[in-house]
Predict the structure.
Amino acid sequence: MIDTSEILVSHEQIVEMTDRVSAEINRDYKGKKLVVIGILTGAFVFTADLVRKLDMPVLVDFMQASSYVGENSTGRLVIKKDISTDIKGLDVLIVEDIVDTGRTLAALKEMLLQRSPASVRICTAFDKPDRRTNDLKPDYNGIVVPDKFIVGYGLDLDGEYRNFDEVRIVKRDINTEDR
Ligand code: IMP
Ligand code: MG
């Protein structure tokens, strides 16, 4: 039985967060053009909210990737869908739903840097620093959350609950290796 009755982050708190993070990005990239890369599937909600609060010229693209733990600490990155934008010489902002171990983003950032962009920064809606296995630090950080499995605002459990307008805690034994 899956219990999602406990709200961790309310809709109002999410709106405050997107206001604050978008203001930081607007300040830092003033007068520049920004390529926003949303990481599918989880970041589709946050990306849609965020880009509508940005006031510089923005190109929006999406990428789908997952990391598997391999012999090295970053893990192996598997790209299921690549961007179609040429990012050479451009400022890139990766938008993620949640940073957990940090493996996916570390590998993804490294891969994008090989395409010679002007810069690559990371923005995440939620951050679970207790779970980090590397030194990855998001440049723009929404809300720090405890080491609990959460759903809603794009985050799923087996593909479900992404449509919740707030973030809820899942109460059930979850195999964390299976994320
Ligand atoms: P990592 O940082 O490479 O470990 O992977 C982060 C990804 O794991 C996120 O993009 C989510 O897809 C997934 N994830 C991590 N924690 C949660 C959670 O609490 N709920 C739902 N998905 C999660
Ligand atoms: Mg994800």
Notes: The longest helix spans residues 11-28. Strands lie at 3-9, 34-40, 58-68, 76-81, 91-99, 119-127, 140-144, 150-151, 167-171.
